[in-house]
From TrEMBL:
Its main location: membrane. It is a multi-pass membrane protein. This is TerC family protein. It comes from the Bacteria. The chain crosses the membrane at residues 6-31, 43-66, 72-96, 125-146, 152-172, 184-204. The keyword Ribosomal protein does not apply. It is found in: Membrane. Belongs to the TerC family. Pfam families: TerC.
Amino acid sequence: MEFADSIIPLVTLIVLEIILGIDNIIFIAILADKLPPEQRDKLRYWGLGLAMFIRLALLAVIAWIMQLDKTLFSVFGIDFSGKGLILLAGGLFLIYKSTKEIYHKAEAGGDANAPDTTKSSFRQLLVQVLILDMVFSVDSIITAVGMVDQLWIMYTAVIVTVGIMLIASKPIADFIGRHPSFKILALCFLLIIGMSLVAEGLHFEIPKGYIYFSMAFAFLVDIIQMRTVPPAPPVPPVK
């Protein structure tokens, strides 16, 4: 009976972890696009694998994680905790990366699917993925601890979620790669997530439902536009 009573919180936590993990998948997919095709799957698998490892490691030191909500210092009446500082740093990093990528796509002659001329090594991109894994993992673990009090449920939810993300990451990345407009839309999503992380770090929490509803609505509009607007004729080469 005890196991049956744990099913609902387990499924709820898995769904929540998947929703929070979508941001991670989009970020990794956009970074992987900078690599040669034969290395993109490797970055996705390493990135998501590290995300699982970090979350499992954080669960192992769960008592320390809970201390991250305690105030470390205050500035202009705003209390800063360990969690807040991590969210601030991660949010600013996400805003910087998203803005830089949008600028690059705009400067590529308006072609969002133009080849990326920026030289990035696998190791550099993996470090960037690791930074965001840390941010999303801390937020995810603190949320999980607030929902359930059984460690095995948290471990199971993390492992199942990462497994689902590994399966879904390639189709999502391929879809974003085939549709340039969705690449810009995905970058805008990451920009919004970055701003929400900064706001949360400053105690101006934006309800997640508003953010994800906005994303879903924008995604639906883009789908409708893709279905109804005929593709533009190819531009003839300049002679």
